[in-house]
Amino acid sequence: MADWPDLAAVEALVALADHGSLAAAARATGMAQPNVSRSIARLERRFGLPLIHRSTTGATLTAQGLVVVEWSRELLAAARRLADGVEALGEGPSTLTLAASHTVAENLVPGWVADLRRRRADLRIRTEVCNSTEVIGQLMRGQCDVGFIEGPDAPGGLNHRVVGEDELLLVAPPGHPLTRRRRPLPLTALADWPLVTREAGSGTRVALDHALRSRGLPPIEPVQEAGSNATVRVAVASGAGLAVLSRLAVAAMIDAGTLVAVPMDLRLHRSLRAVWAGPAQPSGPVGELIMIASGRDRRTR
Q: Which of 10, 68, 90, 198 has the highest local Cβ count within 10 Å?
């Protein structure tokens, strides 16, 4: 039988990456600080890799640790999907199925769902994570009740409501020549550098292509395409190239100093939208979730 890593230890490692210190990771996970340190040490022995640098001033991730953290995010997301799926197999009074783009699902949906569950404790909620184009397809086929997408354009044939705004940032690894640039990088110069992108159909890729077209520029041929924000972040941190990603997706790594934002001469904004089929004014759990999404975004901006 496979010797799987302990999920609590994996969660502790991710919390250290997100919050910057063992003490903060302990608060985020509800563990005692010595237990956080011991959990990460067990992971290091399990993997045979140094995951953090320990010093008198604190703990920081090693290069190997940065990569493991991104894979760990995917593992924890899969574990959550497993738990939700098993729960959904049981009988219950009602089920809400939502589909969300990666950026929205990773950064906003968990908080929205927690708020909805506080109001409707008996509601079963299933989350599907895919890109914005696939979210629309699921709605059209009747496979979900509500979707959340990002992008510059509203979808045709569906009801939609803007629930927030997002900004795309150009990011580079520390030490990249562009991080020392004093003036914003012209969008026309972006094609001069290797670029790692999300896959075609993702809201992030659509927004970037839309911005290029607005300047009369063709789409950029990426050196690497990836199906998740996590994979793009790891590629950039490892030196594969630059990337344009949501501020939501890169804020923690920018704060930690593992990615650096490079100013551009065009600010890339896009709308976050709830989309649904059926009545123009949604009711029940769908309507409540959309109202939570709209209100939560205003409180956090």
A: 198
